[in-house]
Specification:
- By secondary structure, the chain is mainly α.
- Helices cover 48% and strands 8% of the residues.
- Helix 3 links the parallel strand 1 and strand 2.
């Protein structure tokens, strides 16, 4: 009501809900489990200005070492909130084809991270 910031509450939110801060703080514990799993898609004209937070996240992710995050951060040129990574079609259409957009990425990740000797062929229907 007053506009005053409750710094104790802000600090609590930062420690418990700020994903970029948490990953940066705990990368030495989280990094190996997150390597190759972080894929962020954001319109560069997000209706809620969330692209600004994504820029900060990308800066952190690109700075990671031991391990490097091995994911992707993509921006839709002049795209709005909920842009989903398709640079060719508007969201209303590309939402209808998520399977064809993301299954190849998922399959690549499975192949790269499967345990040695895992069966990677019998369940594939190509």
């Amino acid at each position: 009501m007053t506009g005053d910031i409750d710094h104790e509450v802000a600090e609590y939110w930062k420690e418990n809900y700020d994903l970029r801060y948490i990953m940066e703080r705990d990368w030495d514990k989280l990094g190996e489990n997150l390597k190759g799993k972080i894929h962020i898609y954001c319109g560069d004209m997000d209706n809620y200005y969330l692209n600004n937070a994504v820029y900060l996240m990308e800066d952190f992710l690109e700075s990671t070492t031991d391990p490097y995050y091995e994911g992707e951060v993509l921006y839709g040129d002049r795209a709005e909130h909920c842009w989903n990574g398709d640079p060719e079609l508007p969201n209303a259409i590309s939402r209808l084809r998520y399977n064809s957009m993301y299954v190849p990425k998922i399959m690549k990740r499975i192949e790269e991270s499967a345990p040695k000797g895992a069966d990677l062929t019998s369940w594939r229907y190509e």
